[in-house]
Write a structure and sequence with these properties.
The protein has 15 helices and four strands. It is globular. Helix 11 crosses helix 14. The protein is about 55% helix and about 5% strand.
């Protein structure tokens, strides 16, 4: 079983945690601190593992990345510019670019590639729908293809962004039709896709009605004016005031 799958076994499947569950920090009497992403945690990310598995062997000339930019049909921005836009080092960007270029010679990733990636990392479940939603969240301009720049900027937010940045990204994921609101149906679709991807090999065992229960509890907290939808302001305010939700933000690392 892959490391990513092992991590998912102890996750509850929610990008925002288990509503009503006592945070670990409260149980231990320790004040919660935002988890730092270590190199080990970085390597748990499915997309990073997929890319680096195809990267050039160590020992190759790192300057080759700059020279090889013209080798793809879609030429990404310079690595210096991407370093300024992300929280990756230049060396990390070079490794990511090599793997990206090897896997995607055209310089673009399509949705089928995303589905293949997640089916490999989560063979115990059906990752097709989740990969579809995740792809659309990365595909900012909605043209059906993800450029290297969009790919690493998104990864940077999810893996090294502030809690505020991660929450904005999560809102965009849940807002499936991109109308600026999250409906119960949209959140339920995302939740179900995560549960489907995790399959039956999770601990604790997930009940069939768990996704709906998650959604109902979240909407009770988030939908302040009870108009049936959650706005970005309601989402950010509720999440940032809820210690349980905040302490579970590290789950982004387990399903990306």
């Amino acid at each position: 079983m892959s490391r990513a799958c092992e991590v998912m076994k102890v996750s509850d499947g929610s990008l925002l945690g288990e509503p009503g569950r006592t945070p670990l920090s409260k149980k231990e009497g320790v004040k919660w601190q935002r988890p730092r992403l270590t190199r080990q945690a970085l390597m748990r990310c499915c997309l990073v593992k997929w890319i680096l598995s195809s990267a050039a062997p160590q020992g190759s000339d790192s300057s080759d990345s700059e020279l090889e930019l013209s080798a793809v049909r879609h030429q990404p921005e310079g690595l210096d510019q991407l370093q300024a836009q992300t929280k990756f080092t230049k060396k990390e960007l070079q490794s990511l670019y090599r793997g990206f270029k090897n896997e995607c010679p055209t310089g673009l990733v399509d949705e089928d590639t995303f589905k293949l990636i997640y089916s490999q990392f989560f063979p115990q479940g059906d990752a097709t729908t989740y990969a579809h939603f995740l792809f659309n969240a990365f595909d900012a301009d909605g043209n059906g293809a993800i450029r290297f720049e969009d790919f690493v900027v998104g990864l940077s937010i999810l893996l090294r962004g502030t809690v505020h940045e991660k929450l904005k990204w999560a809102f965009n994921l849940y807002d499936i039709n991109k109308d600026g609101y999250i409906t119960k149906e949209e959140m339920l679709a995302i939740m179900k896709s995560i549960y489907d991807m995790m399959g039956r090999h999770t601990y604790p065992i997930l009940r069939e009605d768990a996704p709906l229960e998650h959604v109902e509890r979240f909407f009770q907290k988030m939908d302040r004016n009870q108009d049936g939808v959650v706005t970005i302001d309601e989402f950010l305010e509720t999440c940032q005031k809820d210690e349980n939700i905040m302490s579970s933000m590290q789950l982004f690392e387990n399903v990306i």
